[in-house]
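Colleagues,

For the teaching module next term, I've prepared a clean inverse folding example: a structure given as tokens, and then the sequence designed for it. I'd like students to try predicting residues themselves before seeing the answer, so please don't circulate the second half yet.
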């Protein structure tokens, strides 16, 4: 008998999930290739202004939204900004906060840790990148009766979605920066977000500028980042 596509368990509908699998040798090869492909992703701060179609950004957001979330509450909102006026407003507000951070709020030790990255309070990429995706986390939500409903593991869930977003950007041959101007509340105001949405990450997305250099960084080797208990 053919397997039913859906069935009811304890009063809830379940869908048949036919996951494609691979024999270990093929899986091993795929895992190696995927690692090498993702190891090639780098954070980029120098963007080209070359346009990126809206539909591509929509696909990136849809990909991010496939992340798992606590109780499947999907506690995220992705705001995609290409409007030059809004980008410029965001840049102005971000630079104001960043100026304060770099000049008085960040510790000497923090500034020293950032030296190899070459960052400062100037954020031209906020206007140059064709799109800014601002990821908001929803501290709580409203149900269909407009009653407050809970979200769970919000930071974990939105962090996962942001990770999926970064891999989708890399896959599209685009680059991104995980930018965290601090504090980020100005984004709630500029984008007129409701009270349950808090800024999580600001991610400029686009093509890289013509000739770019990224810091020569090393990723920690497997022995340093893992312990196996066999
Ligand atoms: N938010 C600041 C400072 C900054 C902090 C860390 I930690 C970084 O890895 C990079 C930058 C900025 O965006 O410049």
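(Answer key — instructors only)
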């Amino acid at each position: 008998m053919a397997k039913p596509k859906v069935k009811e368990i304890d009063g809830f509908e379940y869908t048949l999930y036919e996951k494609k699998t691979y024999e270990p040798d093929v899986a091993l090869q795929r895992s190696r290739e995927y690692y090498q492909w993702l190891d090639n992703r780098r954070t980029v701060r120098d963007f080209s202004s070359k346009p990126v179609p809206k539909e591509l950004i929509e696909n990136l957001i849809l990909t991010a939204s496939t992340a798992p979330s606590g109780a499947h509450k999907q506690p995220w909102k992705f705001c995609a900004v290409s409007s030059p006026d809004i980008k410029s407003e965001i840049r102005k507000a971000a630079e104001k906060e960043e100026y304060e951070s770099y000049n008085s709020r960040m510790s000497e030790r923090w500034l020293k840790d950032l030296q190899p990255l070459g960052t400062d309070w100037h954020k031209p990429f906020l206007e140059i990148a064709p799109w800014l995706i601002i990821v908001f986390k929803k501290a709580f939500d409203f149900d269909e009766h407009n009653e407050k409903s809970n979200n769970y593991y919000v930071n974990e869930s939105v962090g996962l979605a942001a990770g999926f977003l970064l891999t989708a950007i890399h896959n599209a041959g685009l680059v991104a920066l995980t930018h965290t101007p601090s504090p980020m509340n100005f984004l709630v105001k500029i984008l007129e977000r409701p009270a349950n949405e808090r800024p999580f990450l600001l991610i400029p997305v686009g093509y890289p500028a013509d000739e770019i250099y990224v810091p020569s960084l090393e990723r920690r080797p497997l022995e340093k980042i893992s312990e196996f208990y066999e």
